[in-house]
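Build the 3D complex.
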Amino acid sequence: MPFNRKDLLGIRELSVEEINTILDTAESFKEVSARAIKKVPALRGKTVINLFFEASTRTRTSFEIAAKRLSADAVNISASGSSVSKGESLVDTAQNLQAMAPDAIVIRHPSPGVPHQLARMVSASIINGGDGAHEHPTQALLDAFTIREHKGRIAGLQVAIVGDIMHSRVARSNAHLLTRLGAHVRIGGPRTLIPIGYDKLIENSEGSLTVCDHIDEAIAGSDVVMMLRIQRERMTDAFFPSLKEYSVQYGLTLRRLELAAGDCIVMHPGPINRGIEISSEVVDSARSLILDQVTNGVAVRMAILFLLIGTEGQ
Amino acid sequence: MKILIKGGRVIDPSQQIDREADLLIEDGRVASLLEDPHGDDFRSDGAEVIDATGLIVAPGFIDLHVHLREPGEEYKETIASGAAAAVAGGFTSICAMPNTKPVNDNASVTRFIIDKAREARLARVYPVGAITRESKGEELAEMAEMKDAGAVAVSDDGRPVMDSQVMRHAMEYARDHGLVVVDHCQDLHLAAGGVMNEGRYSTLLGLKGMSRAAEDSHVARDIMLAELTGARIHIAHISTVGSVEMVRRAKKQGTAVTCEVTPHHLALTDAAVVGFDTNTKMSPPLRSEEDRTALMEGVRDGTIDAIATDHAPHHLDEKMLEYDLAPSGVVGLETALGLTLTVLRHSGNVSLSRIIEMLTIGAARAFSLPGGTLAVGSPADIALIDPGREWTVEPQRFKSKSRNTPFAGWKLRGQVVETLVDGRRMIRDE
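Done.
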């Protein structure tokens, strides 16, 4: 199955075939990370720039390792703050990077749409490493990969996504991806953190997307429960009264998890707040796949880099 | 000095005229409508003839809502460049919003604007003064002095007065001085941080939304205050189902409220934001299809008085930013007629005379401005329109200093081919 895209900007634009191509390719790359010499020459001579305008350890490192295991040269640029505070505009950043002739640029930025704007300005492949509350396609792909690995399928599964839906690019990308592959996604969280019209988010989907009135309703009978990080500053913006109340009302505990299917798996894109959106007992339980997600992230990102800039992938 | 505009279809909604006639201009004023277009009327002897065969002859357009950026941000627009854009789009009168740097909150700024406009000798420029000092929403600006200097209305456009008591006093005081209070209706708390309409598309794009309730609740407040104070109010760039309905109801009850709509809110919805083109960012934001439909209905049933562009020039560099950081606003003077004819006439089946009414006498009445009519004796402010001509929007050809339009490359039907102000020919078809 060919993959004829210059960029990976979001899940929304991807077909089922393209998603499956990425997941299947990732499967063949996963084995590389288990070798004694964790390197293949697939992207030798290629340059990947990680351009991060937001703090990130997991995603940036994951991309860096993915590039290096494919023998590409990886360069990290951490630019804190926006182009405005830095004094350089987006177009100038783009032109400067382009002048160094990279093959791919992984960008994370707090403003939605920056990867799309950048993609119009440069000829390098742009990979969206998270743009504001818009999309985080590589995270959704690694989540789908992890679910598929453990459940053998995605179609027909009941998946609960719980927490700060409003500010979550992970939730949006997963809603697109999982429903497109036929899962039934239920959304739960405080009403203040669920944007209006969320249930109308998806299109061309085999599955369904439902916004639940109570998180227990979202979790009941679920095959997968995906918890989202809650950020402290949401409290001061009057989205909920206190972290203590949040953890009781919306946190995932072993007790609440009993509502889910017997073989339910628990996921979290990280970084986790132990004892707030998810209890330590759940994090450390056998049901938690949080570290598998991190492991799979490398394989999925190798697949994406390979498909976008590998010679055979083009 | 005589000019004869010959062979055109004269549409002047102020006099319910829509027929073929020749228009004679003498000494900068409308002298007469010659009812015998094929005869040779002696009154036109010696006149310069403009052949208007196949064209519509309309009163020059009036735009109640433009931002000319001078004083203070001349790199975006000047009074002269804005007035040049106006006449290029058929507008012979434009109302300049006060959010310049400094704010037009006193008579000296008002006079500066009028002097600059006089020097430019293009469109007439009517300054709109601020409601409060520096548009901070706290103390009233010197409205009466601004009026004496030539201001035609007051507004804190872009920075709506949030304190309802201040707004109440502003309305009472403006009423004393015969000024219309114009409001950009938006509850700033409810809309805080928003960069587009709140709805399916803001959810999809992860951009912070501004709810329609932020506009509606402010419109409701203003209508109630207008009823309380007896002031005349004008709701700027109305954009929601709720606002249209409230204005409709208030008008039925006899409240002195008028409103305007922009061409971009009639032509586009928030679906246009997909792709993150910052030229789709404006305030109020592009709304949903449901809202657009309600605006079209408001145009048809007369709830909406005027088409105003909210011409808001921004430099290319400023718009080339992240979507949530880019400034709001689009230029509109040079695309207004083409868009309204394309969207309202050719797609929306609104009559030509209704469209011209909103661009001329409807606008004039809202602010009690002169003009908007071809009545004998009025200044010869005239727009000649080719209603069927197809053209492509090419921002690099704009007379405005700025290019921030979401309509680049659009094929429109209907174009202004000539504009006269005081009988002086401003632009000619090339």
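The CA atoms of residues 183 and 208 of chain A lie 7 Å apart.
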